[in-house]
Automatic annotation (TrEMBL), chain A:
Localisation: Cytoplasm, Cytoskeleton
GO CC, one annotated term: cytoskeleton
Domain of life from the UniProt record: Eukaryota
Keyword field: Cytoplasm, Cytoskeleton
GO biological process, one term: vesicle-mediated transport
Family: Belongs to the fuzzy family.
Domain FUZ/MON1/HPS1 third Longin, chain residue ranges per copy: 296-415
CDD domains registered for this protein in UniProt: Fuzzy
One Pfam entry name: Fuz_longin_2
Keyword match Cytoplasm: yes
Protein's name in the database: Protein fuzzy homolog isoform X1
FUZ/MON1/HPS1 second Longin domain residues: 175-269
TrEMBL record, chain B:
Gene3D superfamilies named among the record's database cross-references: 2.30.42.10
Name under which the protein is recorded: Protein inturned
GO cellular component: cell surface; cilium; cytoplasm
Main location: other
Residue segments, region Disordered: 1-53, 704-726
GO process terms (BP): cilium assembly; establishment of planar polarity; nervous system development; vesicle-mediated transport
Gene name of the record: INTU
Amino acid sequence: MGEEGTKGTVHLLCLAASSGVPLFCRSSRGGAPARQQLPFSVIGSLNGVHMFGQNLEVQLSSARTEDTTVVWKSFHDSITLIVLSSEEGTSELRLERLLQMVFGAMVLLVGLEELTNIRNVERLKKELRASYHLIDSFLGDSELIGDLTQCVDCVVPPEGSLLQEALSGFAEAAGTAFGSLVVSGRVVAATESWWRLGTPEAVLLPWLVGSLPPQAARDYPVYLPHGSPTVPHRLLTLTLLPGLELCLLFGPRPPLSQLDPQLLDRWWQPVLDPLRACVPLGPRALPAGFPLHMDILGLLLLHLELKRCLFTVEPSADQEPSPEHRRRLLRAFYTLVTASHFPPEPGSPEEKVEDAAQRSQVPRACYLVSGPEEPGTGWRLVALQSGPRRLLLLSAQSPTHALRGLATHTLHALTPLL
Amino acid sequence: MMASPISCSSRHSPDELPGDPSSQEDEDCDYEDRVSYSGSYSSASSDYDDVEPEWLDSVQKNGELFYLELSEDEEESLLPETPTVNHVRFSENEIIIEEDDYKEGKKYEPKLKRFTKILKTKSLLPKRYNKKNRNDNELVSILKHQSNQKTGVVVQQRYKDVNIYVNPKKLTVTKAKEQLKLLEVLVGIIHQSKWSWKKSGKQGSGERLVVHGLLPGGSAMKSGQILIGDVLLAVNDVDVTSENIERVLSCIPGPMQVKLTFENAYAVKKETTQPRQKKAQSNTNDLVKLLWGEEVEGIQQNILNTPHIVMYLTLQLDSETSKEEQEILYHCPVSDASQKLKSVRGIFLTLCDMLENVTGTQVTSSSLLLNGKQIHVAYWKESDKLLLIGLPAEEVPLPQLRNMIGDVAQTLKFMYGSLDSAFCQVENVPRLDHFFNLFFQRALQPAKLHSSASPSAQQYDASSAVLLDGLPGVRWLTLPQKIKMELDTALSDLEAADFAELSEDYYDMRRLYTILGSSLFYKGYLICSHLPKDDLIDIAVYCRHYGLLPLAAKQRIGQLVIWREVFPRHHLQPSADSNTEVFQEPEGRYFLLIVGLKHYMLCVLLEAGGCASKAVGNPGPDCIYVDQVKTTLHQLGGIDCHINEWLTSSPSPCLSCADWFLTGSHEKLDNLTTSPILSRLPVTSKVATSPTCRILFGDYSLKTRKPSPSRSSGGSDNGCEGGEGVGLSPHTIPNAVWKQRESQGSDGSEESGALLKVTKKKATLPNPFHLGNLKKDLSEKELEIYNTMKLTSGPENTLFHYVALEAVQGIFITPTHEEVAQLSGSIHPQLIKNFHQCCLSIRAVFQQTLVEEKKKALNRGDHSGSTNSISSLNPVKEYGVLFECSPEKWTDQRKAPPVMAYWVVGRLFLHPKLQELYVCFHDSVTEIAIEMAFKLFFGLTL
């Protein structure tokens, strides 16, 4: 194993906590799913140390070598998830959140009942296969960042109010309170109730829709990990335009076939143009022509109370570095500032809460200059916290002392959007 | 009876020390003085030199010495309860003083040796005699426990055997709660442990068992032969001390006759009519007490309840002997809270083994939850052994823990050569226990370490330790050239080792040691060093570990002598170059000698072998070297007032207090400009009166002026000159310069209070016209200071704190305790605490960068590893965090509390040399870290 190098690989193991039987193992290498697997003996000892500790009332939570981080987490005393990552710049925060998302995805597709009450391991294994696709999308490189921030990836449509109106009207007519418009995994518009969905599913549902192969319509049973982990709901998706899907959550009734096609026409035909404008928005997140400073190469805006975020690396796309590189830089920077400085988002109890005495000194902004010694090279990253909003920017050119001004202005301009 | 003059005169009380009152007068602490002093020192002083040094008794079997003696006043205040118990007078000839029992008993043996020494120094015997003896390892004969071996001259009368009857069956008490209970209950002898802490006497082989009382009706009393004051040496010919007595007695299976061997009280007490000796703090556990003050026991309890552990495990398990816990070579402490961590060692062993197999890199740390508390465990693997340290995350953040385990491994290697030799030798166990006791106290109770200091300094120490203890450097105090040169000369003289007794032709034989280098500390600041960086850091980490640096900061040392063999990595690592032309380190042995006197501490690294003669056995400290180092310290006594002045008013960048920036918004500007001066004022006047000022700045007529608060209020037009001073200089120029300039500017200096009244505008805007004037007045030197002083840009001084590490030389600078103490406020201490914690996480990022850089340098050959580094942020070169803070108690309900914002910025320089800079400044001015770094590092050399 060691000799061929494990650089950049992530191994995710899922085991039944009581028996230690592996339920599945997923791996990815360099951001793409990989077949390479850990030997069974290693899986056994990774689980063994954790179990050994648990028997002695010591919870092993993480371990680090010079280039690898391992995180253990057990859920409901029934499922143990272990992730071993040697990706560069990996951190515990990222892996812990990854495990939460993975368990959320398992519940979403299989239901909590099956996971806590394992009667037939082989059957569970088969059922879990359905979640591989979603789980792999967490392990690999994704254009989205919701898995890390635990906020819903959003885009800002040019004519948001029109779409919002159409959506609310349609959902009401269809007989559900939960409806949203999703473009390549990002939410364009959603009903009030949809926004009130709890943490894992709010991120997971659009993510799931984005990760599924395109289809005109789907009727997909889902459990809501936070809201309804044992009773399944039905996720109905209707492709309005290629890449743009309408998602609705229903109870057992009505079946998809009963949804009146005329209802669709009535509500969506009038807003066809705004809908068309949304389709290319996906990776850009911001409406075309939004004034952004030239220096900004990527941005991540989070609203911690609404749990929504805007993430884009599109501006000045012709310049170095590549979009993947930009995404990685911003992800790494987000992890760094969240783990070490900024208070964790409300509603994520797993974060280490710093002692109250420290709280009188509140971090507001943070910048980092990376790259070789020569002036004018490397990247500059800046983070700014203001009220519930947090903005992270990637820039190449701005001098250090101008970073904060740049961030403040940008945040100011973005505030009406989110 | 010759012992009595010896022990009396061997104590030189602090006020007798040269350089105290008299030598302070002569300003340039002259060479002459020193010569004359050392002359008298070596030749004439029969009342000094011919006596056996008091530390000689504390030398241990392996030649090591840790002798610490407090100065007189400290002694009184620190250890009030110990002597009183033992001051029981029985007769004219017999005084029971516990400490004296301890020492006098031992002083018997080396009588002959002492005699020869006296003869030697009186030139009645050739000195070589003594010297030879020492080479033949005679010195070992003055060891602590020689008297236990019944080989002395006066043995026969001194020991007695007493047979008594004991019956353990009579014991109704099931388990002895207190220490020495069996001795009391079974035998009827009452012994009061010298120190209440129960681990007392672990160092060496324990405390002697002095009979302090007899239990009425006990077997001992019935025998009638045991007297109070006797020392119990053996039970049935098994040597006993307070350490093992309980164990020995508990082995008695049933009713039987037991032979007790005592040392006669009378023989012991024969010479104790002399005044009470100062207690030598040779017992290392006392050091803990000394450093942490009186509440040691409470702290101990507190610490014991916190889960923490150190373990040394072997990965090579002998499968044939499946003994329980055989893989544990060492562990500490033994407490319930730590027991759990010990029991899960399987996790650590498995992780270490497995993760290395899977990932190809060594495991560095792991985290676990124990009773809802997060514990970090750091790993240090060497060959097939594993060193583990576990501490709660709350107390010790992970980056700090990683630094700490590195330091521990480094220190142990420095002290014992390798981790194996440290942990695998049985006789080291008590030493390691003590070592890790100190370690955990430092880690878990940093605030208590500095209990006797002023609260602000204590807080500063505690909050800065998080960062500073992990830096690969020593705290440096930049001194003016003149003083520095003097120190350099003194150290060079010592290192040259051409004083009479050390020169080779004096004894017509090779000298014992070559002095490789030395470094001088004053109040915990390094002020002069002639050691390579690695050696310096090794020694500094050792001193830091034993808390010697804070100790010296508080005038607590009467005398400190430390001697031990060390294994400096710099000299012992095999040379990569096999070329014979290149200098090869001799295969010698190295010894560390630390001598402390008052605020000074001089660390000397000695080499045996090489040019000096080879060391045989475990040589103890050589008196001549110790004396010579001490002389050097004595001769430096004169300039300590200068150093002190420099400490309080050093020309390091001026600092502002955070609280000044926090007051109500409309007064803000006022405060910004005026309050810094006010706070500096007391210092200013002090400087003006002191002789230092005269030396440094020539004979300008300086007038002391009362600090006048009125200066800050009002405004007048004729105050341009003074206003200039307020607007610019107080933040930027050292007090003395400013002072002098001001006294020139406003010739009526009595009125300067009024003159200095300024309007806000004038205060903030420098007047270029006057600036030119002033600059003309300044001498060149002062200009230089002027330029380096102001770290921040803009008219106001916005610098709160800084740490600058010069990694190549192994030194760092940071504001002195005195400077920080001047900036008292409610917010400021919090700011400083936050600064250090933030710097720790910034530094963790930098360390990651350094690791990557090192890897890149290694991979440069094959050019492969450079492309895939896109996912991490490295290399990070600058990192800043903006904090906002507001007063904690804000009573005014109508207004929102004022908010002050400040930056904590770290900057890493890889080229041209490795430097790290951490600064904390107010948000009002945008700063460029490189510029600040340039100013700070300018002229920072050893």
